[in-house]
UniProtKB/TrEMBL annotation:
<comment type="similarity">
    <text>Belongs to the prenylcysteine oxidase family.</text>
</comment>
<feature type="domain" description="Prenylcysteine lyase">
    <location>
        <begin position="153"/>
        <end position="190"/>
    </location>
</feature>
<keyword id="KW-0325">Glycoprotein</keyword>
<keyword id="KW-0732">Signal</keyword>
<dbReference type="InterPro" id="IPR010795">
    <property type="entry name" value="Prenylcys_lyase"/>
</dbReference>
<keyword id="KW-0285">Flavoprotein</keyword>
<keyword id="KW-0560">Oxidoreductase</keyword>
<dbReference type="InterPro" id="IPR036188">
    <property type="entry name" value="FAD/NAD-bd_sf"/>
</dbReference>
<keyword id="KW-0274">FAD</keyword>
<dbReference type="Pfam" id="PF13450">
    <property type="entry name" value="NAD_binding_8"/>
</dbReference>
<dbReference type="InterPro" id="IPR017046">
    <property type="entry name" value="Prenylcysteine_Oxase1"/>
</dbReference>
<dbReference type="Pfam" id="PF07156">
    <property type="entry name" value="Prenylcys_lyase"/>
</dbReference>
<feature type="signal peptide">
    <location>
        <begin position="1"/>
        <end position="29"/>
    </location>
</feature>
<protein>
    <recommendedName>
        <fullName>Prenylcysteine lyase domain-containing protein</fullName>
    </recommendedName>
</protein>
Amino acid sequence: MSSHPKPSFGFLLLLLSVQLLILCLSTDALPPPTVCIVGSGIGGSSVAHFLRHYFRPTPSQPNPPNIEIFERRSVVGGRMATVTIGGDTFEAGASILHPKNYHARNYSKLLGLKVKPPPSSEDDDSMSLGIWDGKKFVFKTLEVESKFPWVQKIVYYFNSFQMFFRYGFSLSKMNNFVESTVDSFLKYYESP
């Protein structure tokens, strides 16, 4: 029988600790994760911006994530982009941000975008409305330009009567639905 000394438990624990320490010191930090964003409209571009903005390095993750944006068009902006046709520039889609969409408004300010104020109630009286079915107008309000405010009021009341006669209370119900939806949306801004 050979008389080799048996290693003590303390020696084995020390050996294991040294091996773990060497393994930890030789391992680099984790590679940064890749975040894929589909679309570069206001949603996708703001997600990319705020991922970079709010990234805080940690010992295990010192580098910001790799951000890859997949956009089918060659421009950033999505439905907020503009197109130029015949020398005139037009908005390509959503041109209005709801005044109570604070995140989108603040992001627009951060980017230095010009924000037009919503129309005043005086402008609402002269506003025209049309409903297009893809081939023709199925409904169109009367539009009269006049310097006299009383003429604009008459046209406004005529259009209101015409819309009520055609659509009844459904426009009022839709307006109530939109208001309740906006109220629900505003709960996102409340502190938890």
